[in-house]
Amino acid sequence: MRPQQPPLPLQSKGKLTALLLALVAAVVLGSSGIARAQGERGAAGAQRLLSDAEVQARYRNCPRGYYSGPQPGKARFTQDRFVWAVTPAFAAAFCLPKEFISPELKGAEAIAYRMVEDLNEESCGWGGRPEVCRRPRVHRFDVYYPNGLLAKLREVPYFHAANLASKMLISSTQREMSAKSISLRDKPRVGALGPFESGKFAVLSFGAKGQLPLGTVTQEIYYEEVFQGIDYVALEMDTGFSHASNWKTEGTKDIAIATFKPGKKVAGWQVPRSDYETEMRLPARMVEALIRNDSLPVNSERRLFEEAMGTSPTSNK
């Protein structure tokens, strides 16, 4: 057992109590000072979070809707990983941030872009090596445009491509695909057949020789009047254009989403401008994001080849 310490004299106890009280007072005063300083900074608008009423007044006062993404002072918001380009009228109608406004955007009310990875599909076994796998990555463009601007092949109110997570593991024979085509012809399903012709859309780089198609563009989703008077189409384009030799020699940053008139489609460099229905010019910041994302090593066929051959130590997983 430890030897007991002799009791402190009463005078020492009094000094110790005074010291403890002084320390407590210092902590309390210091905390008050910090809180006061934080309150002052908040009052200046630097860090203070807005109340629900203030968010409503500042960000949700437009006639047709409001933006749910991050904005200064919001405590809760929806994460936004898109690069946006919108017209001044669209921004004013839906309370979109002014930095989204693009005077360069033509032919659409708004375009939202990002690169997406398909988490449902992962193909493995490249080069005979089961550990070499790749998930598809695509460039995604959500396009909002005036209702009726684009000519349709079919008058349908909506369409959604059948990207079914488990279905991709079951491949169809030619017999099954033929039977399905006949069934769709005899009994059309609303939503299963898209409104536009195949090849209706292209993403083009305009240069001295003409226009360079940057990749295959597929129609993923369509909604007629997703907002009153505004239609919506989601397009996806495969990655890899920036790794191709023709882009390195002929590609430019003058890039647009082109739509073609009925019966027309992209065919190499020389397509008459009269074949275009619209040209939706992408603003500079969206073009920079498109090229930057596409230039990632994971989108390079050379990178995949090196992994398949065992000459690269890295993995696409």
- Secondary-structure element sequence? HHEHEEEEEHEEEEHEEHH
Strand order of the largest sheet: 1-2-5-10-9-6
Q: Beta-strand level of the residues, as a percent range?
A: 15-25%
Question: Which structural category do the helix and sheet elements fall into?
Answer: alpha+beta
What's the overall average pLDDT, rounded? Answer: 82
Please characterize this protein's 3D structure.
The protein is of the alpha+beta class. It folds into two domains: 42-80, no CATH class; 81-308, no CATH class. Helices cover 27% and strands 23% of the residues. It has helices spanning 10-43, 52-59, 88-94, 174-186, 245-250, 284-294, 301-308; strands spanning 83-86, 110-117, 123-124, 133-134, 137-146, 158-160, 201-207, 210-213, 217-227, 230-238, 255-260, 276-281. Strands 1-2-5-10-9-6 form a six-stranded antiparallel β-sheet. Strands 8-7-11-12 form a four-stranded antiparallel β-sheet. Strand 3 and strand 4 form a beta hairpin. The longest helix has 34 residues, at 10-43. The N and C termini lie far apart (61 Å). The model is unreliable at 23-45 (pLDDT under 50).
Describe the structure concisely.
The protein has 317 residues and is an alpha+beta fold. The chain has helices spanning 10-43, 52-59, 88-94, 174-186, 245-250, 284-294, 301-308, and strands at 83-86, 110-117, 123-124, 133-134, 137-146, 158-160, 201-207, 210-213, 217-227, 230-238, 255-260, 276-281.
